[in-house]
Amino acid sequence: MEMLKKWVGKKCSVQFDLPHTEWPIPGFPAHVFIDGVEMPLIKMRSIHAGEPMWINAKFIKSIVLF
């Protein structure tokens, strides 16, 4: 996950590993901008709207740069 520091400011597709609250529906990733990385936390915000939030990397199933 150290490589994520290079991705700050980039658009990504993220699939979370949160079985009770998968975003937005199971199997479909969130599209976000990476705003910061302070492992194990990653600051991200939706490409659509909303405030940025810090997410623990252990709750990320996959992350792919657009």
Q: What does it look like?
A:
The protein is mainly beta. The chain has strands at 11-16, 30-38, 41-46, 53-56, 60-65. The chain has a five-stranded antiparallel beta sheet, with no helix packed on it. It starts with 10 loop residues before the first strand and ends with a strand. The model has no long low-confidence stretch (mean pLDDT 84).
Number of strands: 5
Summarize the helix and strand pattern as letters.
EEEEE
Strand arrangement within the widest β-sheet reads 4-3-2-1-5
Largest sheet: 5 strands, antiparallel
Q: Assign the structural class, choosing from mainly alpha, mainly beta, alpha/beta, alpha+beta, or little secondary structure.
A: mainly beta
Helix amount: under 10%
Descriptors for this entry?
66 residues, mainly beta, 5 strands
Record the SSE blueprint.
Layout: E1 11-16, E2 30-38, E3 41-46, E4 53-56, E5 60-65
Antiparallel strand pairs: 1-2, 1-5, 2-3, 3-4
